[in-house]
Amino acid sequence: MVDAISMAGILAGAGALRRVVDDGSDIDAREQMCLCSYYGGLSLANAKLGAVHGFSGTLGGLLHAPHGAICAALLPHSWTINIGALEGRVAKDDPELAKRALARYVDVARAITGNPNATAQDGVAFLVDLVEHCSVPGLGSFGLKPSDFPSVIEKSKQSSSMKGNAVALNDAELAEMLRLAL
User: Fold this and answer.
1) Which of the residues in the chain have pLDDT under 70?
2) Which of 49, 87, 111, 130 could hold 53 in an S-S bridge, CB 3.0 to 4.6 Å?
3) Whether residues 92 and 12 fall in one domain
């Protein structure tokens, strides 16, 4: 059930966010974003989240930055790091987990791009472009520094959201995600 609700929200948001950013008076796009938000709320109330939200609480307290900006700055990089971990070390240790998780990334990539042949990397490219289109600032603009990474990682690893990530990421992978989001 959560997968179906989540996918409905993903589809609504992927098709409407650019339109809302470009024209705030686009009522249809705003309605689609309302549905995206609603479906997202239903989904997160019934499933675990992941690394983006695992970091967002810690970073929100440290940086006093908007939650949405933190999440948006991290999202494409979360995909990059998770996909890399799944294709690399996880595929060696637990190939079935890697296969299932990667298939979910492909499903979402196909939904957000509208391309039935999209790859997970196409999903990353879509998200990078969307974040740029929406003028989301990097986390460095809110004051995050590489010297903050060890503390942020240690605190964030304790969050229930981080424990819901597709795969347990190691400290080096988490630091790389933060570095990419600067």
Assistant:
1) none
2) 49
3) no
Q: What is the CATH number of the domain that holds 75?
A: 1.20.1090.10
Q: Pull the structure tokens for residue 15.
A: 């098709």
* C-alpha–C-alpha distance, residues 88 and 157, integer Å: 21
Residue-number span of the structural domain to which 147 is assigned: 49-181
C-beta neighbour count of 44 within 10 angstroms: 16
Q: Please check whether residue 2 is in contact with residue 46, taking contact to mean a CB–CB distance below 8 angstroms.
A: yes
Task: Show the CA angle centred on residue 126, arms to residues 106 and 34, nearest 5°.
Answer: 90
Give the number of domains in the chain.
Answer: 2
Are residues 70 and 25 part of one domain? no
To the nearest 10°, report the CA torsion of 26, 105, 163, 92: -160
What type of residue sits at position 8? A
Model pLDDT, residue 177? 98
* pLDDT reported for residue 9: 97
User: How far is the C-alpha of 17 from the C-alpha of 39, rounded, in Å?
Assistant: 15
Distances (CA, A) of 179 to 16, 144, 175, 182: 29, 9, 6, 5
Given this model, what pLDDT does residue 46 score?
Answer: 87
pLDDT at 35: 97
